[in-house]
UniProtKB/TrEMBL annotation:
One of its GO terms (biological process) is cell development. This is Putative conserved secreted protein. PROSITE patterns: IG_LIKE. Keywords: Disulfide bond, Immunoglobulin domain, Signal. Residues 24-112, 140-218 form the Ig-like domain. Pfam families: I-set. It comes from Culex tarsalis (Encephalitis mosquito). InterPro entries: Ig-like_dom, Ig-like_dom_sf, Ig-like_fold, Ig_I-set, Ig_sub, Ig_sub2.
Length: 230
């Protein structure tokens, strides 16, 4: 009882990040090329508070464990382990779903089944990044920064704000469509969001790339004079 009360007081007074509610975020990692008969591990990085419930699906249908499919829960990430990869597996779309009381998120991944000489990204490509977004946005509006990432094997993508990792909250969320598009969405922008440096970084075993973008929040000063007939 005392420990629960102490934790509540810490959350209220210190605003500890671990105490804040957070909608789930999901990011998938997997090699885009695998060899027949091999083992592939699709990693699903999940964040959220309370801790999200994570499930695996294939084309929207629940995926069941079997002699070839196994699920592993490692806390902040989950693994879908596929043994004895078949050619037909290359036509399947595997989805990682995460949900808690604040919302839900999903990311999907597919891979190609190829000969041993091409599997594992031998003929790889260093990560490339193209960061797009508006330069001006009205106060209270929503900004979407689109980070187009390419590379082989598929790069890992991270976002930072003024040099610090982006923490998803009621105003900020990160989306991954399972392909090359990664989005950072900021809702209800405020004047103090102006000139913040949002960085998208992508990396794989062949190299890394990054891009930075900022925007200016424009206030509607005329709205303050609406009552004066302007």
């Amino acid at each position: 009882m005392h420990s629960s009360l102490n934790l509540l007081l810490i959350c209220l007074v210190a605003a500890v990040p671990a105490c804040r509610s957070q909608r789930p975020t999901v990011q998938l990692e997997a090699d885009p090329f695998v060899a027949p008969g091999s083992v592939v591990k699709i990693r699903c990085n999940v964040q959220g508070n309370p801790r999200p419930v994570t499930t695996w699906k294939e084309n929207g249908q629940p995926l069941q464990p079997s002699d070839r499919f196994a699920f592993e829960d490692h806390g902040e990430y989950h693994l879908l382990v596929i043994s004895n990869v078949q050619q037909s597996d290359g036509h399947r779309k595997f989805e990682c779903h995460a949900a808690n009381e604040n919302g839900a998120a999903m990311a999907a991944r597919s891979f190609a089944v190829v000969s041993d000489g091409l599997a594992g990204g031998v003929a790889g490509q260093s990560a490339t990044v193209d960061l797009q977004g508006p330069t001006h946005v009205p106060a209270g509006g929503t900004v979407t920064l689109l980070c187009v990432v390419q590379g082989q094997p598929r790069p890992t993508v991270t976002w930072t704000e003024n040099g610090l990792p982006v923490a998803a909250n009621a105003r900020i969320r990160v989306e991954d469509d399972g392909g090359i598009n990664h989005r950072l969405i900021v809702s209800g922008v405020k004047p103090e969001d102006s000139f913040k440096k949002y960085l998208c970084r992508a990396s794989n075993r062949h190299g890394a790339a990054m891009a930075v973008r900022s925007f200016v929040v424009q206030q509607n000063y005329f709205g303050n004079f609406a009552g004066f007939g302007f």
